[in-house]
Amino acid sequence: MSQRSEKLHRQVAQLRADVDALQVAWLSQQHCDAVELAAAAERTRQAHRRASEAQRTARAWKLNAILTLILAALIAGVALVISAKATTTEPATPSAVISPLDNGRLPGDDTPAQEPLRLDQAHVLEDVTITHYDVCSKCCGKTDGITASGAHATPYSTVAVDPSVIPLWADVLVDYGDGAGLRRYRAEDTGGAIKGNRIDLCVGSHAEALQLGRRTATVYWVAREE
Predict the structure, then answer these.
(1) Which among 83, 111, 139 is the end of a domain?
(2) What is the pTM (predicted TM-score) of this model?
(3) How confident is the model at residue 217 (pLDDT cuts 50, 70, 90)?
(4) Which of 32, 53, 128, 137 sits most deeply, having the most CB atoms within 10 A of its CB?
(5) Which of 190, 177, 205, 196 shows the shortest CA–CA distance to 59?
(6) Contact 163, 191 (CB under 8 A)
(7) pLDDT in tens, 11-62
(8) Domain span at residue 189?
(9) How many angstroms from the chain centroid is the CA of residue 191?
């Protein structure tokens, strides 16, 4: 073999070695990129999992706080009733005697008792679309104010629902998450456009309904006991 051929052979061998080295370096870089991508995906999944757990914890704390307030109110009411009963067992002075009415009934007999709201049995709907309407012809196509339940629509009390989601006559509580507390309504109406997670609140005028527009809230509902 001549010196020129030997030199050319060495150059070819060196070129092959360089190509092999480049290929090894490229494969190593590809492997590092794949490992880094997998690690980033795992970090993203863990962050999403932590965020979901935080949201669930926040909702649980909110519901527990509401239930705690209701329990405190019930305890205060029971204490007040016990105190009132203890007071009525004492001999009454003539000035404290309650005189019956002409028909033999006592004052307050016609006042209905306030039904306790059982939030511990409430159904929770999240991300509910809230719209607004009044009893004008533009909103209802009529002006008599008679709802699907047969009751008369009452502003700031009546709410239209999808009966397959919230039954008629259920108590409906709306929480906008603004710290202003729960707004209480009664499911007395339905609507052709009220489907799924959407309710329509009755307000005092068409202008107010337009001004309030569309919002999103968490809704609790409790079916009326038969």
Answers:
(1) 111
(2) 0.48
(3) very high
(4) 128
(5) 177
(6) no
(7) 888 888 888 888 888 888 888 888 888 888 888 888 888 888 888 899 899 8
(8) 119-222
(9) 21
Indicate if 1 and 107 belong to the same structural domain.
yes
- Among residues 134, 214, 218, 212, which one has the least CA distance to residue 173? 218
Percent of the chain with pLDDT over 70: 84
* Band (95; pLDDT cuts 50, 70, 90): very low
38 and 69 inside one domain: yes
Residue 213's pLDDT is 92
CA distance linking residue 200 with residue 190, whole number of Å: 8
Total of domains in the chain: 2
Nearest to 140 by CA among 65, 64, 57, 206: 206
| Phi, psi at 162, each rounded to 5° | -90, 110
Residue-by-residue DSSP string for 12-44: HHHHHHHHHHHHHHHHHHHHHHHHHHHHHHHHH
**Biggest alpha carbon–alpha carbon distance for the chain:** 140
**Cα-to-chain-centroid distance, residue 201:** 16
Residues 209 and 129 in one domain: yes
Residues 6+ apart with CB under 8 A from 215: 129, 130, 176
Q: Is 164 helix (H, G, I), strand (E, B) or coil?
A: coil
112 band by pLDDT with thresholds 50, 70 and 90: very low
The token duo for 220 is 């609790």
**Percent of the chain beyond pLDDT 90?**
38
